[in-house]
Amino acid sequence: MKYGVYISNYALQGDPNKFLELAVAAEDAKWDGFFMWDHNYAGKDELIADPWITLAGIAARTEKIRIGTTVTPLPRRRPQDVAREVATLDILSKGRFILGVGLGGSSDNDYGSFGEDTDLKVRAEKLDESLAILEGLWSGKPFSFSGKHYNIHEVTFNPRPIQRPRVPIWCAGTWPIKAPFRRAARYDGVFPLSMSEDMSLEEYSEVVNYVKKHRGSMKDFDVVIMGTTTGDEKVSWIGESEALGMTWYVEVMMGDDFNKFYERVVKGPP
Questions:
Q1: Which tens digit of pLDDT belongs to each residue from 50-108?
Q2: Residue 257: which residues within 8 A CB-CB, separation 6 or more?
Q3: Would you say residue 109 has pLDDT above 90?
Q4: Comparing C-alpha atoms, which of 29, 37, 43 is closest to residue 9?
Q5: What is the pLDDT averaged over residues 34-46?
C-alpha cells in the first residue's frame, strides 16, 4: 500500500505557497504521493489555486514524492495542451507525475458557467478521444487523429515524458456506473467514487473484480481508496482494503485550516 495526500485545489484559501509547504512536509514525513483536485470554478466565491502551476512548484522543490491531478476533467481541456503540460511536469519531476482523468464534477460549474458542453455523453466521447490523443502525442512519433470531436494533422510531439510506456493514467468513476470502470481497465489505475457519501469495502471489492474481469490481470494497476485519519489511531480497514486489492490510500483534505492539515501530514501515513 502506498499513501498520499488528496487535497482540494480550493482548500487553503487557494494559496499555492501553502500547498507547496504542505507537499514538502509530506515528502519529509514519508508520504508517497501528493495529489490535487483540478477545478477552475466551484460555483461560489472560493479562492482557487491552479493545480498545474502549483504542482510545477512542488516538482521543483521535492525529489521523491509522486505528484498528480485527481482528477483533471479532460473534456474541458484541449488534449494537446494537456499532453505538453504533463510531459513537461514529468520531466521537471524526473518521472514522478501521475495523471488522473475523468468527466469532472458539476456540469454547471466547470462546464456550463463557461459555455462548455454539459452533455455527459458528449463529455465521455471527448474524454476517450483525448486519452487516445495523449498516448499518440507522447509516443514521440508522427501522429494524426480523426475523431468526432478532435482532428489532428500529422505532428510529432517532443520531448516525450520520462516514464515508459507512458505517464500513468488513473481514471475516475462513480460506482456502480460501469462505463468509467471499463475505461479505467484500459489504463493504469482507477479512482472509485460512490453515489453514496462513502464507499464500503464491499463496493471497492466489486470495483476490483469488475476491472479485473475487463483487464484479465491487476498487475501494475492501481486502485485508490480514500479516507480521513488522525495519524494516531490504528486503522484496520486500510489493511483490509489492501487485502482486497487496493494499492493506494489517500488522505482527504478540504478546508482552509492549514495548521490542522500540516499537523496531520507531519505525523506521517496511517
A1: 999 999 999 999 999 999 999 999 999 999 999 999 999 999 999 999 999 999 876 77
A2: none
A3: no
A4: 37
A5: 89
- For 32, 68, 80, 176, 182, the CA distances from 99, given in Å and listed in that order, are 15, 6, 14, 23, 18
Evaluate if pTM is beyond 0.85: yes
Buried/exposed code over 214-224 (b: 16+ C-beta within 10 A; e: otherwise): ebeeeeebbbb
Domain that holds residue 126: 2-266
- Residue in 133, 202, 175 with CA at minimum distance from that of residue 184: 175
The domain total for the chain is: 1
Q: What CATH number did the domain enclosing 47 receive?
A: 3.20.20.30
Long-range contacts of 204-211 (CB under 8 A, 24+ apart): 204/241, 204/244, 204/245, 204/246, 205/244, 205/245, 206/175, 206/176, 207/175, 207/181, 208/244, 208/245, 208/246, 210/178, 210/181, 211/181, 211/184, 211/185
* pLDDT-derived band at 196, boundaries 50, 70, 90: confident
